[in-house]
Amino acid sequence: MAINEWPNPVTVAEMYGDWDYEAAVEALERSLSPRPAASIFDFVGSVGVGAGDLLLDIGGREGQHGLVMAERFGCRVVSVDPVIENIERGREIVGDHEYGHMVELRQGSIEQIPAEDDAFRLIFSRDMMGHIADVEVALVECGRVLSDDGHMVIHEVFGTEMLEPAEARRLCADSATVPERMSVAAFEAAVATAGFEIASLDVIGSEWTEASQEAGTTPNYLLQVARLRRDRDRLLEELGEAPYRVMYANALWSIYQLIGKLESRVYVLR
Ligand SMILES: C[S@@+](CC[C@H](N)C(=O)[O-])C[C@H]1O[C@@H](n2cnc3c(N)ncnc32)[C@H](O)[C@@H]1O
């Protein structure tokens, strides 16, 4: 919905007039069958990844998505992340997992990927480009380690026209996000100058967040924000400043996707 879709205000007569409120509530109870976040792996499957292929999960945190792809596709995965705590926690998770022998965790960054040229059949990048100062440099480095016929599957969250500049500034500052990364145009320009081509684009919008809220697998973010605001001083003391700010930003991140200020997109690049 555009911000100014209806320039004419609703009248009092229209608001309280001849329509069925209960029926409207019921209509909004109907799920639109949103795709879950796990649907990202369908994009990996769509480019023909299979047993014996080597994949890179860049910004792979603790390696969990690597484990999912190893199990689903029979591929091996190198999961790279710069944060040592992610690698250490990941070694325990991967070490205990049935498919752990197919996932290797390496400390490194997208700007300097610890891998040989042409090493990977596919690079998987989920929700991490927002942290990157120069996406063009990062994508050129991805191109170095990607085989000639390889693909990248990139999920990212972007600002829409409904995101106000002050909201964007606060959100970026509290989530270690580079403000320019909110821009679809800047991202697509970097893709082109780095020598990649967009093979497909799927605008996920709010679907993944809707799906996790419907399934009850993510917290009630609206309540979280209400509590973060009303109990600010005590929670700041209990959690510390950075965790308080990150929890607030994470909750807004999901709420903004639900109300259209942010949108998720999945790009397949070649
Ligand atoms: C929001 S998390 C996403 C983790 C995982 N990909 C997922 O979807 O659950 C962002 C990740 O990007 C990593 N990251 C931050 N800067 C990075 C960089 N320069 N290169 C690679 N990864 C980076 C962080 O350490 C973190 O694990």
SSE layout:
Blueprint (H helix, E strand, L loop, with lengths): L11 H4 L5 H9 L10 H7 L7 E5 L5 H10 L2 E6 L2 H12 L7 E5 L12 E7 L8 H11 E14 L5 H9 L10 H10 L4 E8 L1 H9 L5 H10 L1 H8 L1 H18 L3 E8 L1
Parallel strand pairs: 1-2, 1-4, 2-3, 4-5
Antiparallel strand pairs: 5-7, 6-7
Helix pairs in contact: 10-12, 11-12
The site of S-adenosylmethionine (SAM) has 16 residues, from loops.
In short:
Helices cover 43% and strands 20% of the residues. The chain is of the alpha/beta class.
The CATH homologous superfamily name of the domain at 34-159 and 175-208 and 262-269 equals Vaccinia Virus protein VP39
What is the helix fraction of residues, given as a range? 40-55%
- Total count of helical runs of at least 4 residues: 12
Strand content: 15-25%
**CATH domain class name of the domain at 34-159 and 175-208 and 262-269:** Alpha Beta
Rounded mean pLDDT is 97
Query: Could you tell me the number of beta strands?
Result: 7
CATH topology of the domain at 34-159 and 175-208 and 262-269: Rossmann fold
Spell out which ligands are present. Answer: S-adenosylmethionine
Write structural notes for this entry.
With 270 residues, the protein is α/β, with parallel strands linked by helices. The chain has a domain at 34-159 and 175-208 and 262-269: Vaccinia Virus protein VP39 (Rossmann fold). The chain has helices at 12-15, 21-29, 40-46, 64-73, 84-95, 135-145, 165-173, 184-193, 207-215, 221-230, 232-239, 241-258, and strands at residues 54-58, 76-81, 103-107, 120-126, 146-159, 198-205, 262-269. Strand 1 (54-58), helix 4 (64-73) and strand 2 form a beta-alpha-beta unit. Helix 10 packs across helix 12 (241-258) and helix 11 packs across helix 12 (241-258). The structure holds S-adenosylmethionine.
